[in-house]
């Protein structure tokens, strides 16, 4: 298991470190044995899990909504909505920011954003790659008791102390104090080490040409040191994928003896599958999302997509929404909150979506304009009012029913009632 087992598991980062973020600080000297260089990505299993979550979260639209008087209003012109749906800053789109966030958080335990303000409005969101130290001073005024000290700073974020409306803290869901998250790479270090070792083992086997899984036996006392060297040179000449399948020819009375254990006995594929499943459990990613389809079926595919969104993506985006609340409050508009639109990740086939939209529109829960927006279609005028089934009515608090008709209050509704009336 080697390098990653020694780095994380044996060093016991989770239990012994007072601050998990300090244990993996990117300011660690380059000669130190540290995972600060994202070395966990050497494991294709861990990289696949992180990339899966990153791509899903980067695809989600973001909106700022305001709830007043029981009604919800979408503030499309809010400055934070503009940043979260376009360029997060001058150098990167928000998709790259979200991808960086997932990788940074799962690898180091926390991801931090710095919100750049100008004239009372957020102008950019920058990823913080420098070390961040959390502090809490109960003697400060409310809203300024929590602080984040960035030191020594990086290319975009100057060193200094910031407050919750300037630094957004996004931890993993495994935390000892609710503030500092625990690195998922550290928790799955043993499996990541196994993953890397298995990949290196198979790569070394192909590179060295050990396709027969055996050894060479030579008669005792019949070969000089030069003969043994010449025989080794002949064996080495058969290395590599290009030489696979070619029968080796030996002199000096040497013969090839096949080992009893074969590649099938070694169960390399089964070991790789087990390691992948362990890493998926640590990262909370279902194996079928990283193309392990052994347990996936067509009949359950839609439910699996829903489970992935509800169990993996929703908790992650919820933490981002809550982390952005101080930033939204600092904009000065009361009753506002951030919201990611996750419906697109749970889309089924065309027939299922059509049936769902039809029922929601007939109930009046969706307007036809809402449906076109969910399907990323251009808006059409005149379809923004909800539909209302004429054979339905509304029930008053005293138990009476209001019955409606299509032609107005002067036309009979069902032959005996007129307009909107109490029954």
Polypeptide structure, described:
The strands form five sheets. Strands 2-1-11 form a three-stranded antiparallel sheet. Strands 4-3-8 form a three-stranded antiparallel sheet. The radius of gyration is 31 Å and the shape is extended. Helix 4 packs parallel to helix 11 (268-283). The chain has 15 helices and 14 strands. The protein has helices spanning 2-9, 13-16, 20-23, 44-58, 79-84, 94-108, 184-187, 189-208, 225-236, 263-266, 268-283, 301-323, 325-330, 350-363, 368-374, and strands at 62-68, 71-74, 110-118, 121-127, 131-136, 146-151, 160-163, 167-171, 214-217, 255-258, 336-340, 393-395, 401-403, 421-422. The model is unreliable at 1-37 and 409-423 (pLDDT under 50). With 423 residues, the protein is of the alpha+beta class.
Task: Please describe the structure with a list of short key phrases separated by commas or semicolons.
alpha+beta; disordered N terminus; 15 helices; three-stranded antiparallel β-sheet; single chain; 423 residues; disordered C terminus; 37% helix; extended
Please give a quick description of this structure.
The protein is of the alpha+beta class.
Question: Which value, in Å, is the CA radius of gyration?
Answer: 31 Å
| Helical segment count | 15
The SSE order reads HHHHEEHHEEEEEEHHEHEHHHHEHHEEE
Helical residues, percent: 25-40%
Supply the helix-strand structural class. alpha+beta
* Spatial gap, N to C terminus: 76 Å
Low-confidence stretches are: 1-37, 409-423
Q: What topology, given as strand order, has the largest sheet?
A: 2-1-11
Number of strands: 14
Query: Looking at the structure, what is the overall shape?
Result: extended
Give the percentage of residues in beta strands. Answer: 15-25%
Largest sheet entry: 3 strands, antiparallel
Mean pLDDT: 77
